Amino acid sequence: MKRPSDAYSIGGWRSRDTVRGSRGPSIHSGSRARLPGQCQFDESQELDSAKRVTPPTADSPVTISGVRCFLAVRLPDGVKRKLVEVQEQVEQGAPGFYSWTAEEAMHLTLYFLGETEEGSLEGVKDALAGVQGEPFRLRVEGLVRLPEPTSPRVLAGGIAGDLEKLARFQQRLSDTIFQLAAFKETRRYYPHVTFGRLRRGMPGNAKAVKRTLAKIVIEPTAMFENTEYVLIRSNPGNERLRYETLETYKLG
């Protein structure tokens, strides 16, 4: 099976809007110029992706036997605390609408592998050990509302900084892991940090949600240098050990 050249991770939802009003092409797009240091968005492809069935995530119910794994970048404590403050602001203005990601579980997804058979894990680890990459500097900036800004099911922090380095490294990971991964992601990568998900049965276009989100601005965090990434096992339903680090890989 030939791997699509534009495959990207499970974190690849796209948004046409942020509170800061950023718009433009995706970070992989070569058709239009990118603004330096900002995450850009591709409107036409976001509209298309919004019509698709929502793909599985690390916290989706387990449907087949295996180890649910994903690759991620850990976030500094200061960045996570800032997102917790945003959670509190949204909860105060629109109580009960969203479930919140625990501070210790916040991360930047690089690739979601899906349900990986136990016997295949060593092969995955060996393949990842051969992936070379340079450290990259990032920051969290702007509120991202997915898949539609007017009725967001997911709230996330946008990513800015060394986006070209991040994109090249993520593509390298995708090229390496695509054939080994149970979940074959074929959409473009759009980096963001999810911190909230709409609760089942709650309307994302409620007046309280719109009024509250209109006031939310996530100012740029301090830039941080990422020198590693991790292979994480997700244990849905296990609150004590939701995310378990299986392997850490150094960059540079």
Summarize the structure.
This protein has 252 residues and is α+β, with helices and mostly antiparallel strands. The protein has helices at 43-50, 77-93, 121-129, 163-177, 207-213; strands at residues 67-74, 98-100, 107-116, 136-146, 154-161, 192-198, 224-226, 228-234, 243-250.
Q: What would the keywords be for this entry?
A:
alpha+beta, 4-stranded antiparallel β-sheet
Describe the structure.
The protein has 252 residues and is α+β, with helices and mostly antiparallel strands. It has a 5-stranded antiparallel β-sheet. Strands 3-1-8-9 form a 4-stranded antiparallel β-sheet, covered by helices on one side. The chain is globular, with a radius of gyration of 17 Å.
Q: Structural class of the helix and strand makeup? A: alpha+beta
Q: Provide the low-confidence segments as ranges.
A: 1-56, 60-64
Query: Cα-atom Rg, whole angstroms?
Result: 17 Å
Q: Walk across the major sheet and give the strand order.
A: 2-6-5-4-7
- Give helix and strand order, one letter per element, not per position: HEHEEHEEHEHEEE
Strand content: 25-35%
DSSP, total strands: 9
> Could you give the distance between the termini?
31 Å
Shape annotation: globular
Summed over residues and divided by their number, the pLDDT gives a mean of: 79
Count of discrete alpha- or pi-helical segments spanning 4 or more residues: 5
Fraction of residues in helices?
10-25%
Largest sheet: 5 strands, antiparallel
